[in-house]
Write a structure and sequence with these properties.
ABC transporter involved in vitamin B12 uptake, BtuC, 15 helices
Length: 351
């Protein structure tokens, strides 16, 4: 026994770690489901958990109150909660990918101009298109995000490849230019065309419907699955480009695919939800503290945790305001800004 203890001094800790890892994902899934049910039940019109399960299982409504509860759940709260789950999971997964690609713990989906491009696209749609045409707004926002991500990538690329320092620099420059363009559009726009776009810029899940959630879900699923398939490449990129290349990884090709996938994943959800900041920054760090830095575990954990976080943030946003709901982006910013300062302090002021 003594010899075994000498040979395996940390065997007990290893067994405990395996046991802890075995219950992490069930706990994350339970938290995700619990947040979803809580979001469906809380609001000006309270709905009991029993009513929720009867409604979701296709059971009939009991009287006028039951019919009202069914309309509230299926028409208002369920699409909004599902949209929050998709947006939070996608932004968190994109944040994980950007932090691996840039090897920077302060990276998030908006650092490379994706948000600015989406905002310019949305503002353009709001100013130039009829006010009742919703569909072109997310389409224009997505095209703006894709165009901004492409411009940043082209400007950062050189014959030797794409360096993370140049990628960050070009992202900051393009983002600053797009932000200036947004301010000019707001200043020069007719008075009646801006309020809706400005509210969208602060983050808004109220436009979610089951149809829009159904359209968005395949894009989110494809992007998250592709990032998961690239998880080994992300693990190797954390070691540095040279070490990753010596391990047999086609570094530039993998970096390009990760960048485009993460950018378009973030752009697709921003096009529907508006600019919801800090989710892609704080959630990956929370998931990393739970499951470690291996991306095969980190990506699904971040998706579940991000969905849970944004569902709860949106529930708080629509119930905390005394005279109406708050933008969900304001709630995430209130929680994300202190965490950002904490990261800076923990790293000695260095990213």
């Amino acid at each position: 026994m003594a010899e075994a203890a000498v040979c395996f001094p940390d065997r007990g800790k290893a067994v405990d770690a395996v046991r802890n890892r075995a219950i992490v994902f069930p706990l994350l899934a339970f938290s995700f489901a619990g947040a979803l049910v809580l979001s469906l039940s809380v609001g000006p019109f309270p709905v009991t958990v029993g009513q929720i399960f009867r409604i979701l299982s296709g059971g009939g409504a009991d009287g006028g109150a039951g019919e009202t509860a069914m309309r509230v759940v299926l028409t208002l709260r369920l699409p909004r909660a599902l949209l929050g789950a998709l947006v939070g999971g996608a932004l968190s997964s994109s944040g994980v990918a950007f932090q691996a690609l840039l090897r920077n713990p302060l990276a998030d989906p908006y650092i490379l101009g994706v948000s600015g491009g989406a905002a310019v696209g949305a503002m353009t749609a709001r100013l130039l298109l009829p006010g009742d045409s919703f569909l072109p707004l997310p389409l224009c926002a997505f095209l703006g995000a894709a165009l901004a991500a492409s411009v940043v990538f082209v400007l950062a690329r050189r014959r030797s490849g794409v360096s993370r320092e140049r990628l960050i620099l070009m992202g900051v420059i393009v983002g600053a230019f797009l932000n200036a363009l947004i301010m000019m559009m707001v200043a020069l726009a007719p008075p009646g065309r801006i309020p809706g776009a400005v509210y969208w810029l602060m983050g808004d899940l109220s436009l979610g419907t089951l149809g829009r959630v159904g359209l968005l879900a395949p894009y989110v699923a494809a992007g998250v699955v592709l990032l998961f398939l690239l998880s080994r490449g992300m693990d190797l990129l954390l070691l540095g480009d040279e070490a990753a290349f010596q391990s047999g990884l086609p570094v530039e090709r993998v970096k390009t695919v990760i960048y485009l996938t993460a950018s378009l994943l973030a752009g697709s959800v921003v096009a529907v939800s508006g600019l919801i900041g800090f989710v892609g920054l704080i959630v990956p760090h929370g998931a990393r503290s739970i499951v470690g830095s291996g991306h095969r575990r980190l990506l699904p954990a971040a998706f579940l945790l991000g969905g849970t976080f944004l569902i709860l943030a949106d529930m708080l946003a629509r119930t905390a305001g005394p005279s109406g709901e708050l933008p969900v982006g304001a709630i995430t910013a209130l929680s994300g800004a202190p965490f950002f300062l904490y990261l800076l302090r923990r790293n000695g002021g260095k990213p």
